[in-house]
Specification:
heterotetramer; A mainly beta; B alpha+beta; C mainly alpha; D mainly alpha; A: mainly beta; Immunoglobulin-like; 4-stranded antiparallel beta sheet; 3-stranded antiparallel beta sheet; 7 strands; C: 4 helices
Chain lengths: ~100, ~160, ~110, ~290
């Protein structure tokens, strides 16, 4: 199944700007479906970005993060061609991860 | 209400354990103590995400109070295009930032996101969050162990002709 | 041009007056009264459907009438049926009055 | 600067007595059109109206709907365009477009130029059948001809396919033809009639919002100008939390003014799409788009 993570990591000088878009419903547990039943909470609670074996960002998310979440941040100490590992886990234990090349 | 934290904590440890083992496998990586220590700091603050108001969430997350600072640029729209997808970003000139958090006061649970920022990462993050209704939005920056915050209001209404 | 605008406004005021009057009465009603009110409403809605200018609120009112009647609450059922009929009639009036009026709004 | 006093859209309008309370804002208009419709003149007048009403908006920018009308909304849109929410639908559409049917054929076999870069010619008037064929109808016909079940016109797969086809036409100018056939002219006129006819309990026509009040707010939303309004289709709407086709947009607009929606791809909707696309000729395709 195609990965649920789309990443764009672009390095200029010592700073690498990372953008990621993740396909996930991010149900908050407060929304009712068409038949009036509450849709159970189903959201990514932790998203980790790793480079060179070290975490460059750990995002702890609650149910308020938007559907198909997007995130952008920058970090230092990486160069073109390095690997950036992205992995997420959600409150139902589902996970996905991918490795992206830094452009 | 959410999956019980016990289960998630054990899964977290299993994952990190696996992560460490994988790292050990990479011959060229100088495996020093830091990743283990950094991994411990990653513990998911589940409780803070279930609390209602800002103050309780901040207390549960940091155990300290925050003070306003003009060194944090919180960028949120004045009127949200749509409460379901509100772009939010925070950047700061404060020194050695270790974490950034976003709080949406009027949401059922105020804490929306909590970012742990290692020192090699720049202290600015952009995200898209849901807002239940017109609300105050706060970005909290932990710098040098002290908490600073910036707050703005975002107007959110039902779109279109409504009902 | 503004002359027929006011004429249309006056007729619409009449229609909404009718709507308010229709939903006001609350007298002990029997199933027979409900049946006739419901039939009238259904006929009006069928006509509105035929000219493809039905209002969602008209359909909702008719459903509410049926539900109230099934629950044996005929006062409410008749009120809802009358409202449905009035709304459907307003939709028919709207379509008729718009038949040529739309040209006035056209950008030229 | 506005053409007429804006229509008051407070909750009062939504009440039962909306009919009586709605304040009609109509400019004085010249005499009604002569009997035989003149699409070329219509399109020119339509375009001049918007260019005159919004002198600061570059003509090509009208296709960006609300974002051509409001800077704050535009900034939020530009932020999101860096990684647009329709990214997943676009990729799914591309994959679906090349996946062969059970009989080995693909969508490319049903369309000129393999379906690439042709969205700007849809909808067109099919003189054999004597009716307007929209891209969504053509896609479902292609499926049926190849023994596949038709898709829902409203979202998901149909939205993904049309998103990919629109993407391959990005930047090309809308190019809708009206052949020299009285039935084509009638379809065009029927679409124009639907566009200007008031409907539903709120008693609004498409023009009430998208011609007389573009740039105004309807609660939190900024109304898009009608010029080029279909050029960004299909769109990912945050309100829907997903993709939506032209059919879904027409149906939801109807239900918002409390008019019972027609069947997707029914004649009125296809003719409406024909009229709206024709008067937007010459404006670039910008689909798939993302909207509030």
């Amino acid at each position: 199944m195609a990965s649920t993570i789309r990443v764009r990591a672009v390095s200029s000088g010592d700073i690498t700007e990372v953008q990621a878009l993740i396909q996930h419903p991010m149900d908050s547990g407060y929304v009712k479906d068409a038949k009036g039943q509450l849709i159970p909470p189903h959201f990514i609670d932790q998203l980790v970005f790793e480079h060179g074996g070290k975490n460059v960002l750990v995002a702890n998310w609650g149910p308020a993060v938007a559907k198909d979440p997007y995130i952008k941040f920058s970090f230092k100490g990486a160069k073109k061609g390095d690997d950036l590992k992205i992995s997420w886990v959600d409150n139902k234990g589902a996970t996905d991860s991918t490795i992206a090349k830094i452009q | 209400m959410t999956a019980d934290n016990g289960f998630r904590a054990t899964r977290r440890l299993v994952l990190q354990g696996a992560g460490l083992v994988a790292l050990a496998g990479l011959g060229n990586v100088a495996l020093d103590v830091a990743p283990a220590q950094a991994a411990a700091a990653d513990k998911y603050p589940g409780k803070a995400f279930t609390l209602k108001g800002d103050t309780d969430a901040i207390q549960a997350l940091y155990g300290k109070t925050t003070e306003a600072s003009d060194k944090i640029a919180l960028d949120v729209p004045e009127i949200a295009e749509n409460g379901a997808v509100v772009p939010i970003s925070a950047t700061t000139t404060l020194a050695n930032v270790t974490s950034i958090a976003f709080l949406v006061s009027e949401n059922p649970n105020a804490l929306a996101a909590y970012y742990q920022i290692p020192e090699s990462t720049l202290p600015n993050v952009s995200n898209r969050v849901k807002m239940a209704k017109t609300t105050k939005v706060t970005a909290i920056v932990e710098s040098g162990g002290k908490l600073y915050s910036a707050t703005k209001e975002v107007k959110v209404t039902v779109g279109g002709c409504g009902g | 041009m503004s002359e027929n605008r006011t004429r249309m406004m006056r007729s619409l005021l009449l229609i909404s007056g009718l709507l308010l009057a229709a939903s006001a009465p609350a007298f002990a009603a029997s199933e027979a009264d409900f049946k006739s009110a419901y039939a009238a409403a259904a006929a009006a809605e069928k006509e509105a459907d035929a000219i493809r200018d039905q209002w969602t609120t008209a359909e909702a009112a008719l459903k509410a009438a049926r539900k109230a009647a099934d629950a044996g609450n005929f006062d409410q059922a008749i009120a809802a049926a009358k409202q449905a009929e009035a709304l459907a009639k307003a939709a028919i009036f709207q379509a008729a009055s718009e038949k040529d009026r739309w040209k006035d709004a056209e950008v030229r | 600067m506005r053409a007429g006093p804006p229509i008051r859209l407070g909750t009062a309008v939504l009440s039962l007595a909306a009919l009586a309370l709605a304040v009609f804002a109509l400019n004085a208009r010249a005499a009604p059109a002569s009997e035989t419709p003149d699409p070329v003149a219509d399109a020119k007048a339509f375009r001049d109206y918007f260019v005159k009403k919004f002198p600061t908006v570059k003509p090509d920018d009208f296709v960006n709907g609300p974002y051509s009308m409001n800077q704050d909304m535009r900034k939020q849109w530009e932020d999101m365009e860096q990684f647009p929410p329709y990214e997943f639908a676009l990729e799914a559409g591309k994959e679906m477009f090349s996946k062969p049917f059970k009989n080995g054929k693909t969508y490319a076999d049903c369309f000129s130029n393999g379906g690439i870069g042709i969205r700007q010619n849809y909808p067109y008037f099919d003189e054999k059948e004597g009716k307007v064929i929209t891209l969504e109808l053509a896609l479902n016909r292609c499926r049926e001809v190849n023994g596949e079940a038709p898709l829902s016109y409203m979202k998901d797969d149909m939205a993904a396919l049309t998103a990919y086809m629109a993407y391959t036409s990005r930047g090309k100018l809308m190019d809708i033809k009206i052949p020299n056939d009285p039935r084509a002219l009638a379809a065009y006129e029927n679409g124009k009639r639907y566009f200007y006819t008031r409907r539903g309990q709120l008693n609004f026509s498409c023009a009430s919002c998208h011609v007389q009040n573009p740039g105004e707010r309807i609660r939190a939303e900024i109304l898009a100008p009608a010029l080029g309004i279909l050029n960004a289709m299909p769109i990912y709407r945050s309100e829907w939390g997903g993709m939506g086709t032209i059919s879904r947009r027409f149906v939801s607009c109807n239900s918002q003014v409390r008019a019972v929606a027609l069947e997707p791809q029914s004649e009125e909707y296809r003719d409406l799409e024909y009229y709206l696309s024709y008067v937007s000729n010459g404006l670039p395709i910008s689909g798939p788009g993302s909207r509030p």
